[in-house]
Amino acid sequence: GAVVSQHPSWVICKSGTSVKIECRSLDFQATTMFWYRQFPKQSLMLMATSNEGSKATYEQGVEKDKFLINHASLTLSTLTVTSAHPEDSSFYICSARDSESGGQPQHFGDGTRLSIL
Amino acid sequence: DAKTTQPPSMDCAEGRAANLPCNHSTISGNEYVYWYRQIHSQGPQYIIHGLKNNETNEMASLIITEDRKSSTLILPHATLRDTAVYYCIVRVLYGGATNKLIFGTGTLLAVQP
Q1: Which of the four pLDDT bands, split at 50, 70 and 90, describes residue B5?
Q2: How close does chain A come to B10, measured CA to CA in Å?
Q3: How distant is the Cα of A8 from the closest Cα of chain B, in angstroms?
C-alpha cells in the first residue's frame, strides 16, 4: 500500500534553533502534501497545504515565516520550524495523496515529535 | 471546522463487534465519509470511505444511512490492538482547496480484555 515516510521521528533541540522535518511519499507521486500539528490530548490541526512547485497555502493563524514549507519534488516536502521555542514543541504529522489517483485517500506519516528545551 | 459529531469515548469487549457512530447532518451531495484511526503516538491510519452505499474491506464495514446524515463504522471482531481514536471526516473527493481532511475530536475506543 501507499507509504508516507517522515524523518526524523523525534528531535530535541535548544530554543532558538531551526528544525527541518522531511516528508516523503515512497511509492507514489504527490503534487499535494499536508502538514498537521497535534498537541497532547488534542486532535490534529491542519497547518498548511504544500503544493509541488509553488507556494504553500497556510491555514488561518499559522505563521508562514515561522513554518517554512518547501515542496521541491513530487515525492518530498519539508517543514522547517524556524527559531523554535518551547511553545513549538508538538507532534508534527505530514500527509500525502497519490496525485495520479484522485479518488485515493490521504496517507499519513508516523509523525515527528519535536521537543524544544 | 469539522462537520461531524462523534461520541468522545466508547468501550468494547475483545472479540465483540465495535460499532462507532458518526453524525454528519450537513453533508453535501459530493462529500464522502472517511474513517481514520490514530493509535497512540502514531500518524492516522486510513480505514475506509464511502459515498452512499455500504462499504466493506479487510479492516471494517461502513454503513451509511439512506439520507446520508449519519454513518456507523463496524469493526467485526475487536482486538486489543484496535484501541485507538477513531475519526469520522467528510470531504469532497475532488475539488482543490476544499479537498482537505479536517479532523474533529474523534471517538476513543477502548477494547477491554
Answers
A1: very high
A2: 16
A3: 13
